[in-house]
Amino acid sequence: MTGAGAAGELESARVTRILRDDIILGRRAPGSRLVERDIAAELNVSRLPVREAIRALVGEGIVISRPRTWAVVREFTHRDVQDFGEVREAIETLIFVFAAQRHDEAGLARVRGAYERERAAAENGDVDAARTAAAEFHEIVADLAGNEMLSELIGVFVTRLRWLFGQHDDLSAMAEEHRVILAALEARDAESLRRIIPLHLAGGQEAALRRLANGNYSI
Amino acid sequence: MTGAGAAGELESARVTRILRDDIILGRRAPGSRLVERDIAAELNVSRLPVREAIRALVGEGIVISRPRTWAVVREFTHRDVQDFGEVREAIETLIFVFAAQRHDEAGLARVRGAYERERAAAENGDVDAARTAAAEFHEIVADLAGNEMLSELIGVFVTRLRWLFGQHDDLSAMAEEHRVILAALEARDAESLRRIIPLHLAGGQEAALRRLANGNYSI
DNA sequence: GACGGCCGCTTGGGATACCAAAAGTTGGGA
DNA sequence: TCCCAACTTTTGGTATCCCAAGCGGCCGTC
């Protein structure tokens, strides 16, 4: 999900990446403790990089920390997922509308590339590749929106986004929806996008709520 | 703006508050260096709380930090303010529409209270009190929107919001706009709010761009 | 047996000292 | 004037130590 890690990568960034992946991939369950000393020992680093990593993950909204006690992996409630869905809908709609107004041919080509990769992966049943390409589809469009602050905003939410909403089941349905969205984007049809995007996101929302009911994000 | 500081306040929180106020009040200019050792010596703390404070302010978007070199107070460009304004418009509109749909009588009373305080302060020409009440007006409405994620989102942006857009000049015009907004809120008139809020924010946006042109947010 | 308070253990917050690596600065030479 | 190399500054990280605040189990009481 985040690559192998650059050569000159900071220790704190490495630790952040490891803990983030542990959480998203379920190796650290929601509600489980994150004890600085223990993690430092596990990863053979001092407490400092661990502290910074935990702070970073608090910022990404997937860890909860209260002063002078251990931090815990965040547990999401039904309500949290609903609230998050509302916010997500507003932001994504904004992104796609802006992208429809401002995209250029080069950017559009990048979106098409992501779509083609997603479609091919869906056909071959390659789940991971399809999900990755789908995530890239949204990332590239966010780029095309041409608004730095919007990108910063997404940066705050993207980890939660992947954790909660990134695991689609019906790959070809998702690819088909992206095809329709891509067409509206090419036609600069903002009105259609305002209608389509909420529908598109509703699917992932339902899947997230289903997984939540099965106890995937809370203990 | 942030109060006197609780008794059991963490050092890192204290340092964060001091640096934040220094920046917002202009005592540390955009582009100026934030050197850990120097700040630690100034405030009689070790480098640790200073490091955490700088990280926190990076998270709040008012400090820029690159690896292995000093952090600097962020300089906002004309473009940044425009981008920020677009995002702000979308989020605030969402907040007011949700608040219109979901408010209860108790919450409405709190909004009315903030409005009354703002109007009184504006009449008396008390600039600080009027600005504080105006900020509270928006905070309370955000509460009424009843969406935790939205509140988290605002938390990320609120410092920038106050820095860039918090300094209104025409106090009574601002209070009057809040009166109209309050009325629409009471009537649960979401459609009017979708029209009014962008206009309301446009004023602060222009003021921010004017101050930017006069060199208040960049060196 | 349930409840509540006390006490010891755990844990994070902070201080201090030191080191390595990378970035920034400066001055001299082509 | 421009560029490179030496020097300086600064952060990122390690290793220890200490303290105070939470947490949780134990024990006595009702």
Can you offer a commentary on this structure?
Two copies of one chain form a homodimer. Chain A is mainly alpha-helical and 219 residues long. Chain A has nine helices and three strands. Chain A has helices at residues 11-24, 36-43, 47-59, 78-102, 105-124, 127-144, 148-165, 171-186, 190-213, and strands spanning 33-34, 63-64, 71-73. In chain A, strands 1-3-2 form a three-stranded antiparallel sheet. In chain A, a hairpin with a 6-residue loop joins β2 (63-64) and β3 (71-73). The longest helix of chain A has 25 residues, at 78-102. The first copy, chain A, binds a DNA duplex (30 and 30 nucleotides) through residues 8, 10-12, 35-37, 45-49, 51-52, 65-71.
What would the keywords be for this entry?
219 residues; 71% helix; three-stranded antiparallel beta sheet; homodimer; mainly alpha
Largest interface: A-B, 24 and 24 residues
Query: Which value, in Å, is the CA radius of gyration of chain A?
Result: 18 Å
Largest sheet of chain A: 3 strands, antiparallel
Largest beta sheet of chain A: what is the strand line-up? 1-3-2
Oligomer: homodimer
Indicate the mean pLDDT of chain A. Answer: 94
What is the CA-CA span between the terminal residues of chain A? Answer: 24 Å
Number of distinct helices of chain A: 9
Low-confidence stretches of chain A: none
